[in-house]
Amino acid sequence: MATRNYEGKKFESAKAQNIVDALTVEEALQININGKPFTVSMRTPGEDANLVRGLLHSEDLINDQKFNPEIVLKKENEEGIVTIVNLNIPEEKLGDGYANSRSLLSVSSCGICGKTELGDLAFIGKTIDDKKKIDIAIIHQLFDKMKIRQHDFKQSGGTHAAAAFTIDGDLMCTMEDIGRHNAVDKVVGNLILTNKLSDAKIITVSGRISYEIVIKCFKAKIPFLAAVSAPSSLAVDYAKELGITLFAFCRDERATCYSNPQRTKLNKTDTKAS
């Protein structure tokens, strides 16, 4: 259940009318690891298994990508929405992220909260050194493909979307959530659970790009990241440092590449900067 109907009164041109709007559902999901509360994610219910598996990956909670722990339902509310899940992870499979747990509440699923310098990222491994290039002409096709599958957004206007593609622009999966970070986690989780993560080369997001999104993309070893809206300065700094080609303002047949442009190619003679 991604939306819920709410009554309201709409005022327009000095007129008022009673309406019923579909609003995006936001509910808390508590994630327990080995019987102990680990974090709470504010998310849109649905695709919870993908969300949890993606979060485990981006937060470095599991040191073996092929290990997929069983997600055990612990509690659901009166509407049937899952509120608490438990994962049993053997000690030898726990990653460094488990020992470095920050707090119980995590509304944005940020993997490096508290780390504000690029030097602090040394612990997460080598930069992405992918040699493949992306044809600028397909960038806007990616967003068209993602938009068609934004079914929850069409109902409520209140969800973000993320999608994964091959280097040739073939859509692999699309996920929606009230949180941008959750949508990306759901995509990564789905790719892991379907053994397709290594084929994913591009992630698109429907909103802006913050540094957390860059980190999630890096953790998944996906070299291209593109967004409809603006990037933050820190997102660009991290993308440069971590070897990610970052595109932003991808709309109206325009796109601006802010990092690692050596992976781009133009098949047209028009090479004006966007």
Structural notes for this entry:
The chain is an alpha/beta fold. 23% of the residues lie in helices and 31% in strands. It has 2 domains: 88 residues, no CATH class; 132 residues, Cytidine Deaminase, domain 2 (3-Layer(aba) Sandwich), CATH 3.40.140.10. Strand 11, helix 7 and strand 12 form a beta-alpha-beta unit. Helix 1 crosses helix 5 and helix 5 runs parallel beside helix 6.
Brief digest:
Helices cover 23% and strands 31% of the residues. The chain is an alpha/beta fold. It has two domains: 27-114, no CATH class; 134-265, 3-Layer(aba) Sandwich (Cytidine Deaminase, domain 2), CATH 3.40.140.10.
Structural domain count = 2
| Biggest sheet: strand arrangement | 9-8-10-11-12-13
Helicity, in percent? 10-25%
Summing up helix and strand content along with how strands pair, one would put the structural category as alpha/beta
Q: What's the shape?
A: flat
Strand content: 25-35%
| Low-confidence residue ranges | 102-118, 269-274
According to CATH, the fold-level topology of the largest domain is Cytidine Deaminase, domain 2
